[in-house]
Amino acid sequence: MRRLWTTFFCCFLFLFSQAAQAASLPQTLGEAALLMDARNGQVLYQKNASSPMYPASTTKILTAIIALEHSRLDEVVTVSREAARVEGSAIGLQEGERLTMEDLLYALLLASANDAAIAIAEHVAGSVPAFAALMNEKARLIGARASSFQNPSGLPDPQHYTTAYDLALIARYAMQNPTFRTIVSTRLKQIRRPDADRSKGPPQEHLWNHNRLLSLYEGAIGVKTGYTVEAGQCLVAAAQRDNRELIAVILNSQGAAVYSDARALLDYGFSAFEPVKLVEKGEKVSSFSVPGGAEEVEAITGNSFYINFPFGEKPSFERKIVMRHDLRAPLSTGQKVGELVFIQAGGEELGRVELLSARAVEISATRRWSTWLLGTIVFIVALRLRTIMVRRRRRRLRYPPYLR
């Protein structure tokens, strides 16, 4: 009887732990959602993360990063008629008005101004289609290969779509830019519009950030909201706590639920996972010989690397060293020589870190002498062949054909 009760109690604990684990997963209203570690790109939660979705104004994350990489903040942008007449969210830019790129970026990311988006696109690339080409090219380079962008604002277009995963990759990339980070974390900004025609009323110069999560969530540092009827409520959110940074993406949510979705995802990431450092930057991994090299050299890691594991779970992984096969002396200090790959017990790759040469490797004396000797032999043979050819040419010139 005691054994029966013991078995029943163990089963109850197992079922309870499984139910508790399931209950700890965030419940989101948004049709698609994803939570990513901003430092290493690890996905901690996903829901329909690879489904094509309308991004609405979260598109402007990509617009801003392209502008930052293709222009200076102090460049003066002239507003065109097309930019001044664009539909949707705007700050009322006027045709012919001139603003700095910096002020337009604040209007783009805080007030979600579509007129600023068009003005930026035309200034950077000459036209909206040309700028869209830059957007798609940049998205591919970042790794967002399931996306297609047709405009810089996010206005509805059947060929303008992304996924929660791609949008997280784009936001992760953008947040590595210090200027972008500063802008999207700013709650209020005053810009200058000296060319605005004030007879039409006071121009909008005070910009409030549409992202209410900045005041609702501890540690929130960005990123961008979005809304259209077709896309629903969208939000890309970023937060920092205890030297950790997470990115949450919610697409096609409803009303204020987009913020509760973001809070649920971020809370889950910060509370349910523990970062475990798998390797330290500069750590010696192995020693190797280079063909033609004078001596062995150490391979060291180029960066630190960590993975988030659920609290209480013992990390289980293997390390695999993959060296380059095209290495030849000489090598310079810090040259990439291979990769250190981390593989989970089930065979899934957790990530990889570049391996670098700890010091320079010179050509060995033996190879240097053999190279010199081979070069000398080739030179002598070439000289001898040239002498023979010269003699034959002189002989042909000295004797007519009928005397040869």
Automatic annotation (TrEMBL):
The chain crosses the membrane at residues 369-389. Residues 273-363 form the Peptidase S11 D-Ala-D-Ala carboxypeptidase A C-terminal domain. Residues 1-22 form the signal peptide. GO terms for molecular function: serine-type D-Ala-D-Ala carboxypeptidase activity. Its EC number is 3.4.16.4. The active site is at residues 57, 60, 112. Substrate binds at residue 224. The keyword Cell wall biogenesis/degradation applies. It catalyses: Preferential cleavage: (Ac)2-L-Lys-D-Ala-|-D-Ala. Also transpeptidation of peptidyl-alanyl moieties that are N-acyl substituents of D-alanine. Pfam families: PBP5_C, Peptidase_S11. It comes from the Bacteria. GO terms for biological process: cell wall organization; peptidoglycan biosynthetic process; proteolysis; regulation of cell shape. Pathway: Cell wall biogenesis; peptidoglycan biosynthesis. Keywords: Carboxypeptidase, Cell shape, Cell wall biogenesis/degradation, Hydrolase, Membrane, Peptidoglycan synthesis, Protease, Signal, Transmembrane, Transmembrane helix. PANTHER family: D-ALANYL-D-ALANINE CARBOXYPEPTIDASE (PTHR21581), D-ALANYL-D-ALANINE CARBOXYPEPTIDASE DACB (PTHR21581:SF33). Belongs to the peptidase S11 family. Removes C-terminal D-alanyl residues from sugar-peptide cell wall precursors. This is serine-type D-Ala-D-Ala carboxypeptidase.
